Amino acid sequence: MFEETYLLPSSHASYDPTKHSQLIKLSQLINELNENVKYLPGIRLPSNILATPDITNAVKDATILVFSVPHQFVSKICDQIQGHNLPYAKAISCIKGVEVSPEGVSLFSDVIGRRLGIYCGALSGANIANEVAQEKFSETTIAYQPPKETPEEQEIPKEYPPIDHATFKTLFHRPYFHVRCISDVAGVSLGGALKNIVALAAGFSDGRGWGDNAKASIMRVGLLEMRKFGKMFFADTCRTSTFTEESCGVADLITSCNGGRNHKCAKMMVTTGKKIEEIEEEVLDGQKLQGTSTAKEVNEFLKMRGLEGEFPLFTAVYSRFSCRVRGRRNANPCLYSRDPQGRVHC
Amino acid sequence: MFEETYLLPSSHASYDPTKHSQLIKLSQLINELNENVKYLPGIRLPSNILATPDITNAVKDATILVFSVPHQFVSKICDQIQGHNLPYAKAISCIKGVEVSPEGVSLFSDVIGRRLGIYCGALSGANIANEVAQEKFSETTIAYQPPKETPEEQEIPKEYPPIDHATFKTLFHRPYFHVRCISDVAGVSLGGALKNIVALAAGFSDGRGWGDNAKASIMRVGLLEMRKFGKMFFADTCRTSTFTEESCGVADLITSCNGGRNHKCAKMMVTTGKKIEEIEEEVLDGQKLQGTSTAKEVNEFLKMRGLEGEFPLFTAVYSRFSCRVRGRRNANPCLYSRDPQGRVHC
After folding, report:
1. Separation CA B329–CA B344 (nearest Å)
2. Which of A64, A92, A162, B154 holds its CA 20 to 30 A away from the CA of B184?
3. pTM for this one?
């Protein structure tokens, strides 16, 4: 991404016509101006942040790798890093979501860890990015628990202290960004993915004008389905409290259902009667919503196991959504009837 | 209340000048029109609901008493009922809140139960009244667990089946009003009271424009303080799940922080710089907010035990609010400084 070039607008406070009148590499601009002028304009970055288009150089000798990239780039980036990272490095994935296929649920932290041969934890929370950038207060959850006494750990040179919860708290915690460290990597990752399905349901409810009581019910039921999904498929590690008490669970769900893009687009689907593709085109410049793909993948995963009925909210969101996607809107009479139970059935 | 008289507006659909051109008792109008024309206009009541101004007559031979009255009337109503209720009647209190004094926390269900010599459970949830009246979907929580094998229970005539969770589900559950029954009466009652303190904090945050992340943090931290309060002072019966999983906990908190009157007035305090009394005068016709009195009572209760520091959010809300109340606004410099931690400190 940082190999992109960018023409600094002449209105920029640091614009210098002798330097900036031509296209310049974004990484170079970031390092010169301490600002990501294209993707995070107006926010001053600390001078010890260095942008580089050379990822093998970026990871060289790094004991901690933090992944904060769009999820579709994870695989390619791992290809590029493989063989260049320290064998005893530790990683944290800030990538929201999970990869769900009919065969199974795969966490990005596991993908990264497996591909690079290192341990990878996860960070997620109620962290709308532009608010964090403006140093408005937020909380986050870091999940990190590497297996003990692995051969890799024994290889760590003595000059490196062990990387533990205290290390990550030192790295990430700020007066305006509070960090809680836990051990449940699967729970943290699932929270960031599954809340988007619930946010679609909340958007449908708001679009229909079902009221605040119904929306709160949907969020409550959705939170419990998120927890149930975690406990059912990651039974060894998932904890109830990750969903019901941490920022990555209940708090992230609240922000997503109150103003996230999944909520907004689902509400528009109902109020305008348009298909989801049209809404995505209008609102997101053709980008895809994460909630709709997660709803579909989770549904296929559950269907293969005969477990759709165990997750009525997830299933209802997918049904409601899939009718539109498949263009079967007129074939489905339920779209036009009121559902007295307030659930987002199709 | 039903001894009040009311002049039916001539615009009412059932207005009959031969009957309604003078003041009529509200109870009589309710029974004639199946509508509470003064307090719930436009909502048709079932014809088997009878209004009566004679409370001793209302409770006569009743095996189940449901209390749904403003909390300041509880004591007087118990005085009137005492000696007229069946000794084996059971009660449910739908009164939101608890009575907190420096000496202790008293649940309205306990007050009712003690005064009438019967067992009383509690009902609370994300139940904004006008939405329930319109039969929009909502959920609620009923807490009910009478002690087993009491002398009173042995007195119950054989023709009365035992009153249990199934009875209350039959009585209250509707397609648009879903009921979950649990045993934690203290948790249900505390949820309905303490969420109002958190809603004030959320309102302060919104008034300052601290953003969605900060608001979600406040709700998360507030939920955990609610739970902690319950576990600390009702250790024998309070359960974590009542707060984190039930409608009376997390769901009621969500609706209250998204549009309840405590949230709205706290936000106005910040944006207008007015005192809470002025806001109450303007918005609530001089009625008092429940959150402000609960915040004060809870603070006095905690202070007496040296536990203010254990509940930083509750304590901060009271400090913030009490400065305004005491007219010390200009004496407190913190009101004008930004709090980098996003907490609602004074």
Report:
1. 15
2. B154
3. 0.90
